[in-house]
Amino acid sequence: MTAVSIRHHDRASGASAVCGCDSCNPPLGKKSVISLKDLHGERVVLLVRQSFVRHQIDDVLASLDVEPNVVLATPSSTIACALVAAGAGITLVGKSTAMPFAGSQVVARPIKEALSSGYAIIFPESEQRLQLADAFANELREEIRCSDLS
Fold first, then answer.
1. Distance of alpha carbon 121 from alpha carbon 136, whole angstroms
2. Where are the beta strands (DSSP E) in 1-150?
3. pTM across the whole model
4. In which element (H, E) is residue 82 found?
5. Would you state the torsion angle of the CA atoms of residues 42, 43, 46, 49, taken in this order, to the nearest 10 degrees?
6. pLDDT tens for each residue of the chain, 150 residues long
7. In terms of DSSP bridges, do strands 43-47 and 69-74 run parallel, antiparallel, or are they unpaired?
8. Bridge partners of 115?
């Protein structure tokens, strides 16, 4: 297999967001930017421990000596946002996942600390790549470059 990496880093620009419930935690919901340090002791919904993203989040939290109160773990960021909307607490998700949930009960805020995300397209090494596959990879690179995801 050949992997073609399409990599970007989420920064405090809001690409990684805290999706919080105003009624659950008004102080965090009123902040324009949230630090991961603000999550110490807070009720948090995270991805399951088997998730690579969860390992990345746990590493950053540990480096900051932050211990949130993890009340639920889910395999899906979208489910995490739905749980937050139902009042379960706060979650850390990408901006593109958080924004559809933003409204009167849920707020999405950028986080201060940098988290990174990586994307890759994997092509079989043994076969000649189709022009359509290359065109898709080029379009995806351009979309990520031009979107709020970069």
1. 10
2. 2-10, 16-21, 43-47, 69-74, 90-94, 106-110, 115-123
3. 0.70
4. helix 77-85
5. 90
6. 333 433 333 333 333 455 555 455 567 777 888 899 999 999 999 999 998 889 889 999 999 999 999 999 999 999 999 998 888 889 998 887 888 888 877 888 888 887 766 667 888 877 788 899 889 989 988 887 776 544
7. parallel
8. 10
Determine the number of helices (DSSP H) and then strands (DSSP E) in the chain.
5, 7
Residue recorded with tokens 């930017």: 33
Residue 36 burial (CB count, 10 A): 20
CB 107 within 8 A of CB 26: no
How many CA atoms lie less than 13 Å away from 143 in the CB half-sphere? Answer: 7
